[in-house]
Structures are given as C-alpha cells and as structure tokens.
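Supplementary Note 3. Input sequence used for the single-chain structure prediction.
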Amino acid sequence: MVERLRTQMFGFDYQDQIAFKKAVYYHFRPIPLPVPFQDATGGIGQNLPEKGYLELTDDTGMTAHYTVNPDFVQEMLPKLLNGGRKSFNEWRTTLYWQARNSGFQSSQAVQVGTVDLLMLDILAQRAGLPLHRFLGAEKDWAAAYKGGGSILKDDQELAEEMARYVSEGFTTVKFKVGSAGPQGMDRDIRRVRLVRETLGNSIGIAVDANQRWTVEEAARFAHLAEPYALEWIEEPIHSHDCNGIRELKGQIRQRLAFGESMRIYYAYETYAEKGVDILQPSLGRMTRIDDLIRIRDLARDNSLEFQSGGRTAYNAVFGCLYNEKERIEFHAPISEPMHDRMLGVPVFREGKCFVPTDIPGMPVRVNVDKIEKEGYLESKTYYYPDR
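The predicted structure, written as discrete structure tokens, is reproduced below.
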C-alpha cells in the first residue's frame, strides 16, 4: 500500500522509498510538423519539440514513461542511477537544491520537475491507480479550450481553423497575434475582426502575443481590439516585466494572462499582486509539480482564473484535479501530430479531455514502434546504476 500525505503548504510529500534500477532512452530524429508553426517571437518552427522518450524502472519493477530531451539523460539520469534509495520528497529536495546556483528558471531546475512526474507515475502504478485518481481527482476529465492559429496562416486559413475548433465542441479558441512589420498590428486587428465575424458572439476568443510588444504597443492593440470582446490577451509584453504588467493593466479593460514562462510558485504571487487576471503555469516547465496545485489555490483565493498549459496528453491528467472553470489548453498544431504517435491519449468531446481510467500511473505512452517504422527513431540506449 502506498503511503500518501499532502499538506496545503508543501504539497506532495510521499514517504515511499524509491530506488532506480534501469533506464531506456529512445532518441528521435527531427519529426516534421505537417504544417510549420510559428508564434510572434519565433517559437516552434518546422519540427515537433519532442526529441526523445524515457522509460525509468524502479526496484519494484514499475516503469515510468515520459518524453525528455538529451540534456535530461546526460545531466539528471546519472544522479538517479547512483544506487541511492530515497523517498519521493528526499529525491526531489536533494535535486532541487543542487540546481540552486543554476537558478530556478533554469533547465536544470525544470529537470527536477520531470523527476517529480516520473516518480508520481511509479507511485501511482504501485498503488494500482491511474495517476489522476492517485492524486485525489474525483472526476476523469479536464475542461479545455483549443489553441493554435499560427502567425504564418493567411486570414482565411486562420478563420477556418478557429471554426473547426468550434465545430469540435470547444467554446473558447485562441490564436497568435503580434505580426511583424509596420502594418503588423493592422493585420492582427483585421484577423481578430474576421474570426469574431466568423464565429459569432457566443464563442470566446483569446489571443497570444508571446511577449511581442512594449507596454505602449500592447495598450494600443487592446484599445483597437475592444469592439471584438476578447476573452483575454496572453503575454502581450515581456513575462518578467511585472511593473509593466501593472502599468498595462491600468490602461486597458481586457483581462491579462501570464505564466507559461515562469517555473516556480512564487512568481505567480507577484503576478497576482501586479494585476494578472489569469494564471497559466505549464506542466513540463515547472520545478515542482505540486506548484500547479498551489497556483490553482492561489487563483481561487484571489478570485483569479486558473489555466494550465503544456503537452495536452499529459496535462489532461492534472486537469482532472481542476474544476469545470479551470481549463487546460489543447494546443492543436503541436499536440495533435504527437498524439498520432502516442497511446493512452485523452478522448476529446465537447470541450473536455477524458483520460483513460484503466491504466495505472500516467496512461500516456509514446508509440515507439510507430516512430521506428516512420524512420524517426535514431537510437535506443540502456542505462544501469554504477556498480
């Protein structure tokens, strides 16, 4: 029986001992996106972000599964396969403070959050429970909105994409703004107007500028977009410019959303103080996974909205811990091509993601056989503790 203890202040505190005995890492060649995707500051590009996949086995024979990059294998895996035996909290506390001098926004700190996910998968498997139920979820679905809308799409393509999302049952959709060039903002507003005209007034429309603008530019966009009733404007300015956020908030009526660029709970306290309306942590970018719950509760306590981003197949599991108004993002252009190469992904119906209930642990598995048949599996490497 798995012993579980959670406190409001410190989140997860599992006492079960874990020793890691084996790892298998599958390294991928670049997997091209069906259609190139880009945001206003050049994010994503031609290929899927996923570069590899890890299977990590403990001494009870349970195997965790998660997509990781080569850096994790090179930097973190030796620390796990060192023959040590520790509790969940001992492992992550030790690793967390080892990352201190790299900074808690660093990739080294985020790797600690990845270890969190791997250990949670193992502990849920030991308990014979799907991960969301192990974590205390009382429902098997996550509320969701659907995002996409590459800055590369022409106006009509964008409108058709948003209309397709609505036809799938999503009542809020999101697309990219922050077009380049002297006429860039005119293009953005034209696209906002077209999407609103296409979808009608009953559908929520949000936009994401990926930190493209200055405070003055963001305020100008917000004023021009006012007639089209945006549900929120996401990251219009630099995500660390907290005084700029406060200044911008004093100039506009629309709600502001920030969070995917932050890695620790404390940053969201500052966001709440500066006037951010929607807190948006991203699974896979956090240094401690229980910070998701702390940020959710921070939002509730301050009458703010909570959302969660990240890879949809994994994020839906944690979305089961949120209420029907606390949504996850289903980022279609990046998630859907990878879902085609996964097993155990959620089923999407009427704006909800229904997660499997018959698979202990994290249900999602990468379909390595399919990736190999497609020619994208570059190597498979086994790792064992040093003896």
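The chain has two domains: 16-129+365-383, 134-354. The longest helix spans residues 107-127.
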